[in-house]
Amino acid sequence: MAERIVVEVSYALPQRQWLVRVELAAGSTAEQAWQASGLAEHAPDPPDLGIHGLACTAGTPLREGDRVEAYRPLVFDPKESRRRRAVKRI
Amino acid sequence: MPRRGTQPVNADAIDALLPQTQCTRCGYSGCRPYAEAIAAGEAAINQCPPGGAATIEALARLTGLPALPLNPTNGVEQARKVAFILEEHCIGCTKCLPACPVDAIIGASKRMHTVIVAECTGCELCIAPCPVDCIVLVADSAADGAPRGPIEASEAAHFRQRHAAHITRAERRRADQVAKIETRREALRQQSGADTLAEVIARARARRASGNPL
Prior knowledge:
The complex is a heterodimer of chains A (90) and B (214). Chain A contains 2 helices and 5 strands, in the order ββαβββα. Chain A has helices spanning 30-37, 78-89, and strands spanning 4-12, 17-25, 48-51, 54-55, 67-71. In chain A, strand 1 (4-12) and strand 2 (17-25) form a beta hairpin. Chain B has 6 helices and 6 strands, in the order E-E-H-H-H-E-H-E-E-E-H-H. Chains A and B meet through strand 1, strand 4, strand 5 and helix 2 of A and strand 5 of B.
């Protein structure tokens, strides 16, 4: 039997978060884990994927225990918010 | 060493009674190190604010030591809270991600960070690293809005396992980083014939000392 790996897949909104465990064939990619997780219906397509805090491509192969994550964009431009904070501080 | 009757109490049994928030408020780097310190007779049993009176009583029963009130220098007992990220301020800096002892924050560089509420122990360790103060603590309430009760043993066991996974992965990542640097260094060595900047300088010095500057 082909080797299997278990990974986690996660997607998070401020008020609702998903963290699911999926079992895949060894050598499966981030994209395959994402599709297998069933979380695609909650997130925009294509997802902005990463593994444990590091952005990755859809084709990145997974290792046992990885956590595939789909990210959301920032709400505000960091440079803009920095300017806003600086003004407030004066 | 604390004893129950004549038996020394082992760290596993003590650790099993701690809430596994990994908050470090006891003065140790996590619940397990605190448990080991208690087992070794080096720490008192009243240093765990998230566990509060209930944990102190349980530890007193286990160890046979008197149930003192919570030591105020370690903190005060509070209702459960969880971290929450104010999205209008998050700059996607990733500093809170490694700070979380149970990997309860999802995020990456220049992406929104989000706390997985069900995984958050409320340890507060993510708050200090945030450069824009966008992480706040909010009341931890169940789906129906009622406040969640104290951390149960099953939940603590889950936190313990997540913390162990966090440590394993952090170590693996560090090892990967070292290996990567070593590979790059080796490639440079092959390419230039020089090992390190220190060796290049040493060679130049030797050349100069030999009276032949070229």
